[in-house]
Amino acid sequence: METLTHTKSTVSIMIMLLLIVNSIAQNSIANKYRITAYQKENNPIMSVSNEVEIIPAAALYIPNAFTPDGDGLNDTFGGVGEGITDYNIQIFDRWGNLLFESNDINKQWDGNYKNELAPSGVYVFKVNAKGQGKDGKSKKLINKTGNVTLVI
After folding, report:
1. pLDDT tens digit at each of 152 positions of the chain
2. Hey, how many other C-beta atoms are within 10 angstroms of the C-beta on 117?
3. What is the 3-state secondary structure (H, E, C) of the chain?
4. By CB neighbour count within 10 A (0-12 exposed, 13-18 middle, 19+ buried), where does 52 fall?
5. The domain 59-150: what is its CATH number?
6. Which residues lie across from 47 on neighbouring strands?
């Protein structure tokens, strides 16, 4: 009975680790999971599950400030999300001039406009994104507008 309980707890820990490792991979549409059960002594493989593919519901986070100072922290501005299939971001100055646009969630604004760093201040962003809904069948539309502060 002790071996079965230990195996169950080991499998539970392994499932949690798999979920943590796979959730770290951002912007991937589908995460694949497989569970491998090991015996306590000598670690021989006892069982391997079928592979399961989980497509997460679309989620998008937009920060409200960034510092393009080259220190490796918050140097760019854009959406960070999971389960996003379509993406568009536009950045405008206070007069409505388009400073930056991207259809790739991995291509973010570095604070430059016409090869020069834009001045510190508040800029307007507009994001339109699509992804899978929570039910796994419908599409989720994400439309966000707001302000971002560029800090030098």
Report:
1. 444 444 444 444 444 444 443 443 444 456 677 777 777 777 677 777 777 776 677 889 999 999 998 888 899 999 998 888 899 999 999 999 999 999 999 999 999 999 999 999 999 999 999 988 877 777 888 999 999 999 98
2. 13
3. CHHHHHHHHHHHHHHHHHHHHHHHCCCCCCEEECCEEECCCCCCEEEECCCEEECCCCEEECCCEECCCCCCCCCCECCEEECEEEEEEEEECCCCCEEEEECCCCCCECCEECCEECCCEEEEEEEEEEEECCCCCCEEEEEEEEEEEECC
4. exposed
5. 2.60.40
6. 37
d(CA 70, CA 110): 10
Label the pairing between strands 36-38 and 139-150: unpaired
Query: What is the reported pTM?
Result: 0.64
Looking at the chain, the domain(s) classified CATH 2.60.40 span 59-150
Residue written as tokens 């490792």?
21
Type of residue found at 7:
T
Query: How many angstroms separate the Cα of 72 from the Cα of each of 61, 108, 110, 112, 120?
Result: 19, 14, 12, 16, 18
Largest Cα separation within the chain, whole Å, is: 71
